[in-house]
Design goal:
By secondary structure, the chain is an alpha/beta fold. Helix content is about 35%, strand content about 20%. It is built from ten helices and 13 strands. Strands 7-8-10-11-12-9 form a six-stranded mixed beta sheet. Strands 2-6-5-4-13 form a five-stranded mixed beta sheet, with helices on both faces. The chain has a two-stranded antiparallel ribbon with strand order 1-3. Helix 2 packs parallel to helix 3. The chain is elongated. The structure holds zinc ion.
Length: about 250
């Protein structure tokens, strides 16, 4: 067991949220019971995840996408009321870390995605240095963007979108988890031959064709499935807590 303030201090010490300009509050978003023995981690504080956490008697939920974001109207109605009502009725703490969870150099979404894909990080790029630039862990180039896309698709177990005009070997790979399609130009400036992120928007397809840099969109959720359980498992081991990752499938 650990107290809520001690668990918050542990997460904050590891993820250092004060270093980031973020789109929502990082840390304890919803206060629950004081003593915590079991953590459930997940990607998003959706109603399905909250219900699953209740079913396994979690004392705390640790997520990448919390409940509160800049630009919301701030009203506790509809889906927000339902999610909050479940958390409050069951006295469950909600911890959420957004950019700090993307960026942690060993346990974060980007580091863990690279590990899953067999990529090693050589440099960081883009706004707040969130993007990773690296290469195949074996030091060899991918024969083509299609070969890299096939690997991503196999590892993440889902179809991916590939835009590739150049049809060249891929030596330098850039990646940034989630909805980081706006990092594409920074990835090209950093010298990437291919860029992997969760989502693609209309302009990036043209940029990929015109600039000869391949774009792979592998799913926002799929690209962010690894950071939350890595951090929660690490903290649970450190503090003697039980941890379980619950994946609520998401096609997006
Ligand atoms: Zn995200």
């Amino acid at each position: 067991m650990i107290s809520r303030p001690d668990l918050l201090t542990t997460f904050n010490g590891l993820l250092q949220p004060e270093r980031f300009r973020d789109y929502g509050p990082n840390g304890l978003q919803v206060e629950g019971r004081m003593e915590i023995g079991k953590i459930v981690s997940g990607v998003t504080a959706s109603r399905a995840l909250i219900e699953a956490a209740i079913a396994v008697h979690a004392d705390a939920i640790f997520v990448h996408h919390g409940l509160f974001w800049r630009g919301q109207d701030g009203c506790v109605t509809g889906w927000m009321k339902q999610r909050l009502a479940l958390l409050l009725a069951h006295d469950i703490n909600l911890f959420a870390y957004h950019l700090p969870l993307d960026a942690h150099p060993e346990l974060g979404n980007n580091a863990q995605l690279g590990l899953q894909l067999g990529l090693v990080v050589q440099a960081q790029f883009g706004e707040q240095n969130l993007g990773c630039l690296g290469r195949h862990a074996n030091g060899i180039a991918f024969a083509s963007a299609q070969a890299l896309a096939d690997r991503v698709s196999f590892v993440l177990n889902r179809p991916v979108v590939l835009v590739d005009q150049a049809r060249k070997a891929i030596k330098k790979v850039a990646w940034c988890s989630g909805g980081a399609q706006s990092y594409f130009e920074a990835a090209m400036a950093a010298g990437a031959d291919a860029f992997i992120t969760g989502e693609i928007s209309e302009p990036q397809a043209h940029l990929a064709r015109e600039c000869g840099v391949a774009f792979i969109a592998c799913g926002h959720h799929a690209s962010e499935r690894y950071g939350a359980p890595a951090v929660a498992a690490h903290v649970a081991a450190q503090c003697g807590l039980t941890h379980e990752f619950i994946d609520i499938d998401n096609p997006a």
